[in-house]
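Reminder to self: tokens first, then the designed residues, so the page reads top to bottom the way the pipeline ran.
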């Protein structure tokens, strides 16, 4: 008694050149709590001590502690300190323990910045929903989706993506995959066939086949979907990513957009997957094709890239004739998407927090893209990067002698996860130079540098193995 506990030292190093000191401090604290190096109940250094140790203002530390307290990582300690909360450690312990197979660096596409999830805004939105929602909101949901979210989504896609719609055309679902599956259910009833981009979303074909509809692959080249091949195959519908082709990263060329729309107007359906159009870094994104032919395009989107894939929330904006059959397919499948999460998303959009989050995220992803390209230029100068400045991934063409199977095993030994583009083809891939689809959404600048250095080593290995 009477003696003051010794303050612990935090192994935190801030990178002043990179800037964003407050964000760096918060990320370092979150990581230390998540990986268990800061355990529940540990009292943190006082704000004055930590500010002195790190050479930053006390206000910056006070604000960081407050942010982590709002997120549930920190809690007040007896006698006015701050400690790691029990809740945060329970979450950390629930996380799977990394094994020797867990990648240390992950360059696979598909994951946004998970640490950037707007926890505070989401907490505010869910708290507001729990306060405001009447008991009636807890009944089985409307299979079309809750009117508040359908209204918010209609307003958002009209404003941001030029989609022509009112809320009557919107159906809420769990994401692009479910949207495709619901449309495939409806087309299967009509014995229809759906074309998929080749290369394209790799579960696309499986989802369509599982629903019992036919599937055909339509090749993609440097101008996006090959519309001449689409016209020749002439399926009942086609799944396409016009704003930013996945995985090649090119937009659909203007003349092909017109050909696609003309084809759709002849009684076909375009399923427009607008999965990452919020992220264009060099200019405004191309508006949705749906705006050109609202009665022939099913526009689909989700929050998987804008917030987090774990939410499982997405939407369809449908031609009028498809609203009733898709709603019926949704009713039979699961009775509708959970109402509370729908209301929280509606609140996030209507409060302006969604737009604010996206403005910040866009800057962060642009910096991550720049960092990745810089590292590639430095460590693998022979690599070529294709695609527009957009989204969360790039297509990287490796030096021609690189043996891909050898590269994959050499990368695995280094605990570096990579994805060859061949994985996204249904038809045999063209015998071109080896290519990787590299995701940078969840890879900060330091990790990009380290991961690309490992990739360069793995390529050297693979080339000497092939030589
Ligand atoms: C081409 C494409 N479409 C859509 C999605 C998102 O799918 P979902 O909304 O089902 O999470 C992804 C995610 O990786 C994707 O790559």
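Designed residues (467 positions):
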């Amino acid at each position: 008694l009477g003696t003051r506990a010794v303050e612990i030292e935090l192994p935190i190093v801030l990178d002043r050149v990179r800037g964003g000191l407050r964000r760096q401090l918060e990320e370092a604290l979150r990581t230390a709590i998540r990986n268990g190096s800061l355990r529940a109940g540990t009292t943190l250094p006082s704000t004055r001590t930590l500010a002195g140790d790190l050479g930053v203002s006390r206000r910056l530390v006070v604000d960081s502690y407050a942010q982590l307290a709002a997120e549930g990582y920190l809690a007040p300690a007896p006698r006015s300190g701050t400690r790691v909360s029990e809740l945060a450690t329970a979450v950390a312990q629930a996380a799977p323990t990394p094994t020797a197979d867990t990648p240390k660096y992950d360059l696979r596409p598909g994951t946004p910045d998970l640490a950037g999830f707007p926890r505070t805004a989401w907490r505010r939105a869910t708290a507001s929903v729990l306060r405001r929602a009447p008991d009636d909101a807890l009944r089985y949901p409307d299979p079309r989706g809750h009117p508040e979210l359908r209204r918010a989504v209609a307003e958002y896609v009209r404003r941001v993506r030029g989609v022509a719609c009112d809320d009557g055309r919107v159906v809420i679902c769990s994401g692009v995959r479910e949207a495709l599956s619901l449309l495939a259910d409806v087309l299967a009833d009509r014995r229809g066939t759906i074309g998929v981009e080749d290369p394209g979303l790799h579960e696309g074909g499986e989802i369509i086949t599982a629903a019992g509809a036919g599937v055909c692959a339509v090749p993609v080249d440097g101008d996006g979907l090959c519309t001449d091949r689409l016209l020749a195959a002439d399926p009942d519908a086609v799944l396409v990513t016009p704003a930013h082709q996945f995985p090649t990263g090119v937009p659909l060329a203007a003349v092909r957009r017109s050909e696609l729309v003309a084809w759709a107007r002849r009684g076909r359906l375009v399923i427009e997957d607008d999965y990452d159009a919020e992220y264009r870094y060099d200019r405004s994104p191309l508006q949705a094709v749906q705006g050109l032919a609202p009665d022939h395009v099913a526009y689909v989107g989700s929050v998987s890239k804008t917030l987090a894939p774990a939410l499982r929330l997405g939407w369809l904006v449908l031609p009028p004739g498809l609203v009733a059959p898709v709603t019926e397919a949704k009713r039979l499948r699961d009775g509708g998407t959970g109402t509370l999460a729908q209301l929280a998303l509606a609140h996030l959009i209507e409060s302006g927090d969604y737009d604010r989050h996206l403005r910040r995220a866009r800057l962060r992803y642009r910096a991550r893209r720049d960092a990745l390209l810089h590292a590639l230029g430095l460590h693998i100068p022979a690599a070529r990067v294709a695609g527009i400045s957009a989204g969360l991934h790039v297509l990287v063409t490796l030096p021609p002698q690189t043996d891909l199977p050898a590269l994959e095993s050499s990368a695995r030994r280094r605990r570096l996860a990579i994805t060859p583009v061949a994985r996204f083809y249904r038809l045999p891939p063209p015998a071109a130079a080896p290519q990787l689809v590299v995701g940078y959404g969840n890879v900060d600048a330091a990790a990009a540098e380290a991961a690309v250095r490992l990739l360069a080593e793995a390529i050297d290995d693979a080339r000497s193995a092939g030589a």
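The pocket of pyridoxal-5'-phosphate is lined by residues 110, 175-177, 201, 241, 246, 273, 275, 302, 304, 309, 314 (CB under 6 Å).
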